[in-house]
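Quick one: 4-hydroxybenzoate polyprenyltransferase from Promicromonospora citrea, structure tokens please.
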Amino acid sequence: MTSAGTSSGQAAAPVARRVLGLVRASHAAPAVVVTGLATALAAALGSPPATVVLVAVAVGTGQLSVGWSNDWIDAARDLAVGRRDKPVVAGLVTPRTLRRAALAAVAVCAVASLALGVLPGVAHLVAVAGAWAYNARLKATVWSWLPYAVSFGLLAVAVVLAAPGPRVPAGWAVTAVAVLGVGAHVANTLPDLEDDAATGVRGLPHRLGRRASGVLAPGLLVAASAVVVAGPAGPPPPLAWAGGALAVVLAVAAGVTAVVRPRSRAPFGLGMAVAVVCVALLAQATGDIAVLP
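--- reply ---
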């Protein structure tokens, strides 16, 4: 290899590591799931292609900003407890890079959100602000669940308001998504209870303890599924019953896994699977989700 080739390879290595760090710090799996679900719901509601794309960009960049801000704000805590799974601790990316990326992402999110319209744009930006508030402070308080309830609920509100026609989201649909968000929060917190407590983070799941939170997480996911099945007008069709049953099985599996394997990330993944099922059921009931004011 020539010296020029060696130099270019050495220069590319830090860039590749930084990109890998940004991907890992973005919390890619939940970001992709949330973005995909919001985009699918927008399409199911009959939004034109341009609106569906804007929803994807707004929600996607908002999720990136939340993930990057989380690892930027938590960098000192992660270093203190030696969280080698975190890209900052692993030396892949610096907090400064994450800060810049988070601020750039939220700027794009603001433009894309407001392009959907004032009301849906403001609703989505408040949802993103709630997630940032969780990262910055609320995660360490008894109110740790509140940003998840508000942000998930407002995300559904934003998608419905961005759809064509003078429609607003039905109360049962917003309630179901909000409860789903709180369940995902509790499930996501379970693997890190001890590490969080060691650095002064004591949200609601920490205060309740592992056993109580291990029961609460699947309970909330089941409750959200029940609301999705029973919420639309008329008796639930067979597809709704089947989807609800699947969501309950996934939620119970999340609870069992949380008890048997306390450090496992599977409960959060199963919680996201419940979210996928619930949104699929919501997409089948678009006439009941979005109603005339």
